[in-house]
């Protein structure tokens, strides 16, 4: 672990920087902090979360070979080398850091990707996946009595490592996680939702304790179709209306679940982590704009804060109603315009059901474009929102813009960024 600061000069300006790293549960966390030499406030920080080698330690601290995207050439990356610090410092300056305000780049690996390196191999999940696939193949063989005809890791799943397995003409989804707490109530949640008439996948097998494998898992029959985000561009308005009405009917069904004790994202029946809806909104306001506040600018941020403040009496009246927060343009499975089922129920949310419409509206704008916002309008219509509630959906959507802007920057999607900023202004009028 390095604590002392070092000097570096970039663009005739002198800076000081410090490197720190720590090990935790097979992962390594590296922090690079940079300050103007004459200041100790207003620094920028790059945070890297990587795998940790049991012998050599942190790949970024001892050196690791990374491939350039432009020509597939390989170079050694070592955070102790001043040239690498210079690259990151120049990136921070390009992103608007001026030495006088604090800025955190929470996903340093994503920054390396944007700088032109194939850096995802540094993520802990990369090594975990390499080791996990043979174990998943063994699990499939033990469950079905034959090896999978095809086994592939899916690109979705930000909390779980997910696979699609074909076995004797049938397809299954295998959700796995080394953190056994993530899916500890998933099967129970799905059972409760199925009893309410919600079309969730059939569970084939599950083990939340990780008894025989180094991960917990749940095997599900695959629902034919794709996430709504991939189908929406080609759907007719009639098809969008039909899907929206079905999704809203699911939300009405889960209202029959008893009100929660507390607010936020929890398995069905468990006490929420927040004592009020206002607390959850305040946390999302902080988290969503931690990285993107500078992109939005002071004027729009001030408008958002004023609108949220005006809604404090409304937030105080929100009851902890159960709703399916992630039935947006993902987890809603559609085939040829028809809804086939819904997926991903590690948790539900207790609070304001308008939140899921707002998240859907912002996701459509970011990932697809404004021409498909008709689907969000149909959700509002099916929910029978009044004028005030419709305005609240827009404020919530503006609140979600921050996290989508960060995603857009990571993927260098300037068109999405401009759409989000434009509509954030409209939503806050």
UniProtKB/TrEMBL annotation:
Q: Name one Pfam family in it.
A: APH
Domain named Aminoglycoside phosphotransferase: residues:
157-367
Which stretches are transmembrane?
A: none
InterPro entries xrefs: AGP_Transferase (IPR051678), Aminoglycoside_PTrfase (IPR002575), Kinase-like_dom_sf (IPR011009)
Taxonomically, which superkingdom?
Bacteria
Q: Which SUPFAM superfamilies match?
A: Protein kinase-like (PK-like)
Official protein name in the record: Aminoglycoside phosphotransferase domain-containing protein
Q: Which organism is it from?
A: Saccharibacillus endophyticus
Classification from the root reads:
Bacteria, Bacillati, Bacillota, Bacilli, Bacillales
């Amino acid at each position: 672990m390095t604590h002392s600061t070092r000097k570096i000069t970039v663009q005739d300006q002198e800076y000081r920087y410090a490197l720190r790293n720590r090990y935790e549960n097979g992962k390594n966390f590296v922090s690079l902090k940079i300050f103007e030499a004459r200041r100790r406030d207003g620094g920028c920080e790059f945070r890297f979360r990587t795998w940790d080698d049991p012998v050599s330690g942190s790949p970024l601290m001892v050196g690791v070979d990374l491939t350039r995207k432009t020509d597939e050439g390989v170079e050694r990356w070592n955070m102790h080398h001043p040239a690498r610090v210079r690259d990151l410092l120049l990136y921070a300056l390009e992103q608007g850091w001026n030495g006088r305000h604090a800025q955190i780049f929470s996903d340093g690996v994503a920054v390396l990707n944007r700088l032109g390196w194939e850096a995802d191999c540094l993520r802990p999940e990369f090594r975990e996946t390499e080791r996990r696939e043979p174990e998943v193949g063994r699990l499939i063989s033990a469950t079905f009595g034959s090896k999978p005809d095809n086994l592939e890791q899916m690109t979705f799943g930000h909390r779980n490592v997910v696979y699609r397995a074909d076995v004797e003409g049938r397809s299954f989804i295998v959700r796995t996680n080394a953190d056994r707490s993530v899916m500890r109530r998933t099967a129970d949640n799905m059972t409760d939702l199925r009893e309410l008439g919600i079309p969730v996948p059939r569970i084939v097998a599950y083990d939340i304790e990780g008894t025989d494998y180094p991960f917990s898992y749940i095997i599900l029959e695959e629902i034919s179709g794709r996430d709504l985000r991939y189908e929406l561009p080609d759907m007719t308005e009639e098809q969008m209306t039909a899907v929206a009405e079905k999704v809203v009917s699911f939300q009405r069904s889960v209202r029959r679940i008893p009100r929660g004790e507390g607010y936020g994202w929890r398995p069905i029946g468990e006490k929420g982590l927040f004592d009020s809806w206002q607390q959850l909104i305040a946390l999302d306001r902080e988290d969503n704009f931690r990285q993107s506040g500078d992109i939005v600018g002071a004027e729009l941020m001030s408008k958002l804060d004023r609108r949220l403040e005006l809604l404090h009496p409304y937030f105080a009246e929100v009851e902890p109603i159960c709703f399916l927060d992630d039935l947006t343009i993902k987890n809603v499975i559609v085939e040829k315009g028809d809804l086939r089922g819904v997926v991903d129920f590690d948790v539900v949310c207790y609070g304001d059901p308008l939140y899921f419409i707002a998240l859907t509206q912002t996701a459509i704008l970011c990932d697809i474009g404004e021409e498909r916002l008709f689907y969000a309008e149909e959700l509002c219509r099916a929910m029978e929102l009044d004028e005030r509630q419709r305005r609240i959906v827009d404020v919530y959507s503006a609140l979600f813009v921050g996290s989508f802007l960060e995603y857009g920057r990571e993927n260098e999607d300037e068109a999405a960024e401009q759409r989000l900023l434009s509509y954030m202004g409209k939503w806050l009028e």
